# Entry
Amino acid sequence: MAAEEDFNQLIAQYQPALGEFMQGKPERMKQLFSHQETVTLANPLGPPVRGWMPVAGAIDYASSMFHDGEVTTIEIVAKEITPQLAYIVQIERTQAKLGGSDQLTPYALRVTMIYRPEAEGWKIVHRHADPLSTPWQAQGQHS
# Structure
């Protein structure tokens, strides 16, 4: 049960960190990630990266694109915790001003994150996010 309690403490830290990230402040988010060379990140604002320095750079870059943002909702679709590994699948809905824009733009991302316990506690070792879109129908498929 300790693994689940420790993991849930990390989850409680995630939404405030994402809120700061959407305001152009990435430091709290970076603290939630593993700083090992096996960490990976695939986000909609750049190519997939591996290793702490490339991941930290990608987080900094992505956060720099947003300002005056906030988290509107996080919907956990699935969550599994074992003593060695955990994952979450969630929908993140945020809004922020992008670049120099003064318009708030809503964002909805489909996110999968994998976690593992490290010396400092549970850390994100992989995050993949892509824009949530309407269901795609294959050409020739009939409803």
